[in-house]
Amino acid sequence: MPTALITGATAGIGAAFARRLAADGFSLVLVSRDETRLAEAAERLKQKYGVAVDVLPADLATDDGLERVEARLREGVDCLVNNAGFGHPGHFLEVPLEDEVRMLKVHCEAVLRFTLAALPGMRARGRGAVINVASVAAFFTRGTYSASKAWVVNFSESTAAEVGDPKIRIMALCPGFVRTEFHQRASMDVSGIPGFLWLQADAVVNEAMRDLALGRTVSIPDPRYKAIVAVGRLIPRGLTHRISAMIGRK
After folding, report:
1. DSSP β-bridge partners for residue 168
2. Of 105, 171, 235, 240, whose Cβ has the fewest other Cβ atoms within 10 Å?
3. Which uninterrupted H or E stretch holds 172?
4. Annotated active-site positions, please?
């Protein structure tokens, strides 16, 4: 039975990946900081899908947490989903430096280290997949969050090109607004976001898995967001900076 390790696995997109991969017959390794929620999620998945589920409590903003997950990845997995992440409610100049550094550790260092830990085993077996959850924010400018997600996209594309093996697929997933706990936990006011821009986590994951099967290195779920990104690439960078700044003030 193939094995998938998912970070940030107890809610939102991570939980949706856990459900989808369990339904596809993967045994799971769930990673999160909250041991209670991990145990509850594991029990639900075992009962519903009849798959083996291990839990790995770890804080990915700490070296100890990163090392624990790296050690498990070196034992071998068939699919790695780097999903853990968070946002800040304030502007870049308003956020404490230690919080910004913590974000970079979770969004960038963890993705780098976990991918490097998983790839040798995948290359030895001649198969595997790494899905790095980024955001459509990667294509725009909105502080450290969008900068970190742009790094995830570039890293995923660069690593896929370097590996150069179609049986080892590496993809950045770039969803837009998704109905999860993400914004609430970051104390973000999203009341002004139009209803038609919200996506469902399970739909995002289903499209991501389809794009992965097609060998795409970047997945932008939903035609609405594909159009938004396409238009954003045509607009002069100076204008996108101003639009992003106006959006950030709302």
Report:
1. 128
2. 235
3. strand 168-173
4. 145
